[in-house]
Design a protein that fits this description.
By secondary structure, the protein is mostly helical. Helix content is about 85%, strand content about 0%.
Length: about 80
């Protein structure tokens, strides 16, 4: 009778461990999916940042406020 209880306890422990492993696998899959989504968003934001940077650069070069001027020639 004692070995039957031991086998039952071992079976319950194995079942618990298997369930825990499956839960951890699902968690890992979820985290992996989240990492992929964040990577994709990061690439999108980098691209948008490049476009905005170029836009600002173009605005600055087109504006006389940001043009470099020779201040010595204006002072007399």
């Amino acid at each position: 009778m004692g070995s039957l209880n031991l086998n039952q306890a071992e079976l319950e422990e194995k079942t618990r461990l298997i369930n825990q492993v499956l839960e951890l696998q699902h968690t890992l899959e979820d985290l992996s999916s989240r990492v992929d989504a964040v990577k994709e968003e990061n690439l999108k934001l980098k691209s948008e940042n490049q476009v905005l940077g170029q836009y600002i650069e173009n605005l600055m070069s087109a504006s006389s406020v940001f043009q470099t001027t020779d201040t010595k020639s204006k002072r007399k």
